[in-house]
């Protein structure tokens, strides 16, 4: 039998890894070979209580990411083989960037360097694709932005800003996004918050392309862009929605949309 045949199988398994609602039958020798974290955690001569346990629970991780991480050490491919559940908002099937970011986090935390490198490459590919699309659910975009915003790496921070600017019109309609912007104290969003403040205080408008939802946070003199739907440069104010921002009851709100 190949190593892949023992992935999440009872045969010869000597430890179970739990994460959320999922359980995975594993083998200590394989875990320790792949990860310095598990090698130290399960060392029979070590000081960790986990070395005596038959079940270890990883409480603070995304269950699907843990499953992907464990699949990888058996067959070096962490992607699901088949889709076995209904696609729902925010899961790995409907938004690859979210899934790969969670896998990258798990691999980095549990010291799987090869998987971390592979997942990071997948993250970058998924983010580049996400930046080009206008048909992604707002909830997915918001989740990706929050995940990126937690990281200090400049490329991730830059991508977060691009996504906020590109999807500003749709996200500003979401109460959760507005609350997150107002509560956040990280310096990474200063530029975006300053732009929003200019719109509010100066009564400037957001300009949103009627075709592809491209958004400009500047005044009307900077409207030219390549429309992804019409595949042509658009620079006429008549081709945009105008969105007013302001405060209602202390909350940042969309006051009016002119079509």
Automatic annotation (TrEMBL):
Pfam families: BTB. Residues 13-75 form the BTB domain. It comes from the Eukaryota. PANTHER family: BTB DOMAIN-CONTAINING PROTEIN-RELATED, BTB_POZ DOMAIN PROTEIN. This is BTB domain-containing protein. InterPro entries: BTB/POZ_dom, SKP1/BTB/POZ_sf. SMART domains: BTB (SM00225). It comes from Saxophila tyrrhenica.
């Amino acid at each position: 039998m190949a190593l892949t045949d023992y992935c999440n199988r009872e045969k010869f398994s000597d430890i179970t890894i739990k994460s959320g609602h999922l359980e995975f039958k594993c083998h200590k020798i394989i875990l320790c070979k792949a990860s310095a974290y598990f090698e130290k955690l399960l060392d029979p001569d070590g000081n960790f209580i986990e070395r005596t346990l038959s079940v270890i629970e990883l409480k603070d991780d995304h269950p699907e990411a843990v499953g992907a991480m464990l699949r990888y050490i058996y067959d070096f491919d962490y992607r699901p083989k088949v889709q076995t559940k209904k696609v729902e908002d925010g899961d790995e099937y409907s938004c690859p960037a979210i899934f790969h970011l969670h896998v990258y986090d798990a691999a980095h935390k549990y010291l799987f360097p090869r998987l971390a490198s592979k997942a990071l490459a997948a993250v970058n590919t998924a983010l580049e694709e996400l930046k080009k699309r206008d048909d992604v659910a707002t909830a997915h975009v918001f989740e990706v932005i929050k995940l990126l915003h937690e990281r200090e790496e400049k490329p991730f921070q830059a991508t977060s800003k691009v996504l906020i600017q590109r999807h500003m019109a749709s996200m500003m309609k979401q109460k959760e996004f507005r609350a997150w912007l107002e509560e956040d104290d990280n310096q990474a969003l200063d530029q975006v918050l300053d732009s929003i403040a200019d719109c509010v205080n100066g009564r400037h408008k957001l300009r949103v392309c009627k075709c592809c939802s491209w958004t400009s946070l500047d005044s009307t003199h900077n409207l030219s862009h390549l429309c992804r739907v019409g595949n042509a440069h658009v620079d006429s104010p008549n081709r945009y929605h105008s969105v007013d921002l302001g405060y209602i009851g202390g909350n940042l709100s969309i006051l009016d949309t002119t079509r």
